[in-house]
Design a protein that fits this description.
Blueprint: E1 7-12, H1 13-20, E2 27-28, H2 31-51, E3 57-63, E4 69-70, H3 72-88, E5 93-99, H4 103-115, E6 119-125, E7 128-133, H5 137-149, E8 151-152, H6 157-160, H7 166-174, E9 178-180, E10 187-189, H8 190-197
Parallel strand pairs: 1-3, 2-4, 3-5, 5-6
Antiparallel strand pairs: 6-7, 8-10, 9-10
Helix pairs in contact: 1-2, 2-3, 3-4, 5-7
């Protein structure tokens, strides 16, 4: 077992959508549909939290791979508001990665995140991750350096990250775009945690 002690939670949005609607089509369109899916995801996350006996920190993989159509209102509900709700919540610290954010979804996700001043880690192709949404140039550089390294130990921080980007590293951690281990102080790329747990 890794020294990183997180609760891994995987949610297939296509399955949630089919449970939430009578339609067999995996189309996330209309705000009420997006809201219903977001509430179903939150219920599932809360259920996992209630059963957990470990740390009150979770890495959640939200899989959009089976969603054929994702409009702006649903991207806002299922991606942006889900992130916003988790940041405002106090009972559990959630780290999210969105899988299957293909070209047909990417513009919508990017736009709604920017509007809300948020950013998210997304798997845009198999094993290829991007930082979507609002971020500074320094945050982008620091995120890419961490993504390339996967894990940066305390002793490596000064060599992996440029001096001008040191504050951006803290910002990535605060914005839940990177995870700092409370035991070792090492900084983990969320993509590395996805590879480890899912």
């Amino acid at each position: 077992m890794s020294e990183v002690w997180l609760d891994p939670i995987a949610i297939d949005v296509g399955e949630v959508l089919q449970r939430t609607r009578t339609s067999l089509y995996s189309h996330l369109v209309t705000r009420p549909t997006g809201r219903a899916v977001r509430m179903a995801i939150k219920t599932q996350l809360q259920g996992n939290s209630n059963r957990s006996f470990r740390r009150r920190v979770a890495i959640s993989l939200i899989d959009l791979s089976e969603v054929v159509i994702l409009d702006f209102s649903c991207a806002d509900e299922v991606v942006a508001k889900l992130l916003e709700d988790s940041i405002q919540g106090e009972s559990r610290e959630e780290f999210f990665v969105f899988r299957g954010v293909h070209e047909r979804h990417r513009g919508q996700v990017q736009t709604v995140l920017e509007r809300r001043g948020l950013a998210a880690v997304a798997e845009t192709e198999p094993n290829k991750y991007s930082l979507l949404g609002q971020r500074s140039a320094a945050e982008g550089r620091a995120w890419m350096a961490l993504e390339d390294a996967g894990l940066v130990t305390m002793g490596q921080i000064g060599t992996v990250f440029e001096e001008r980007d040191q504050a951006a590293v803290s910002s990535l951690i605060d914005r839940r775009l990177a995870f700092r281990s409370p035991s070792s102080g090492g900084i983990h790329a969320l993509s590395g945690l996805v590879a480890q747990f899912f």
